[in-house]
Design goal:
Elements (H helix, E strand, L loop, with lengths): L2 H7 L12 E3 L14 E10 L2 E14 L3 E10 L9 E10 L5 E10 L2 E10 L4 E7 L6 E6 L7 H8 L12 E8 L2 E17 L3 E10 L14 E5 L6 E7 L4 E10 L8
Parallel strand pairs: 1-10
Antiparallel strand pairs: 2-3, 2-15, 3-4, 4-5, 5-6, 6-7, 7-8, 8-9, 10-11, 11-12, 12-13, 13-14, 14-15
Length: 267
């Protein structure tokens, strides 16, 4: 599973908001945290019986032209892990540079025997999204759904959160975010817990912000489960490490390398 997939697991269609204040996530029209050419490379681990097993890797890239940013995330399992659970995922989003709102989103997912194709075209003027969704592209069904005035896709949520001015938030406060995925609008509650010095394997120690997307109790998560995301406490707001429980064991994604940061001297 890719890091984008971990964020998707954190979506909360039925849960209650965490304690503390909640702030509605406003549309972000200014990007101050990333630039064309940024590359973030993560290694994914699976924990089984207290043993962390290297399972795969995911790479996030950003490109831009005069009018758009394009975010791409590609995740693959290591060949040594394929016999256990093969992963080959692709996510791509284009956003309008002036508004930072999603124009298009697509994902191709191959995880074990599971297959998924999902293509979205956002019409923010008319508050609708045109969806092409199915197991594969050739058999996907076309539908149109209403959306909120500030609805995001899976990848744009991640990148726009990096532009939040965290100095305005206190521990225990949350952001309430609207995301469209799988033919439905999901409210996601992201709680800010604290600042922390965190050691990242092979990279060293970093000043971080620890945040918790709220998890849905059900087939994947049980009561009390919590996802932890450590984000660099600087102007880049790069996710450094993600830990999440799953139905059997837990998974972790750790930043292995980075390049092309907008504020390169701060990490």
């Amino acid at each position: 599973m890719t890091i984008a997939g971990l964020y998707y697991l954190a979506s909360n269609p039925h849960g209650q908001a965490p304690s503390g204040g909640i702030t509605n996530f406003k549309c972000i029209s200014t990007n101050s945290s990333f630039v064309d050419g940024e590359v973030l490379h993560y290694k994914a681990y699976y924990n089984w019986k207290m043993i962390w097993i290297p399972a795969g890797e995911v790479k996030f890239t950003i490109t831009e032209d005069s009018t758009e940013y394009k975010y791409v995330a590609m995740g693959k399992s290591f060949s040594s892990y394929d016999n256990f659970f093969r992963v080959n995922d692709y996510y791509a989003t284009t956003v309008d540079k002036k508004t930072m709102m999603t124009k298009t989103f697509v994902r191709y997912i191959e995880e074990g025997d599971y297959r998924k194709f999902d293509s979205l075209t956002f019409d923010h003027k008319n508050l609708v999204v045109h969806s092409l969704n199915g197991k594969i592209k050739e058999t996907a069904t076309s539908k149109t759904f209403p959306i909120d005035s500030c609805a995001f896709d899976l990848l744009s949520v991640m990148y726009n959160l990096r532009n939040i001015n965290t100095s305005n938030y206190n521990p225990g406060e949350s952001l309430d975010i609207s995301m469209f995925i799988d033919e439905e609008v999901y409210p996601i509650h992201v709680a800010y817990e604290k600042k922390e010095i965190k050691k990242i394997k092979d990279l060293g120690k970093y000043k971080t912000l620890l945040i918790h997307p709220e998890l849905v109790v059900g087939n994947v998560f049980k009561e009390g489960d919590k996802m932890n995301i450590w984000v660099s406490d600087d102007k880049n707001k790069v996710p450094l490490m993600i830990e999440s429980p799953i139905s059997v064991g837990s998974v972790k994604a750790v930043l292995q390398s980075y390049s092309g940061l907008r504020h390169d001297g701060e990490m």
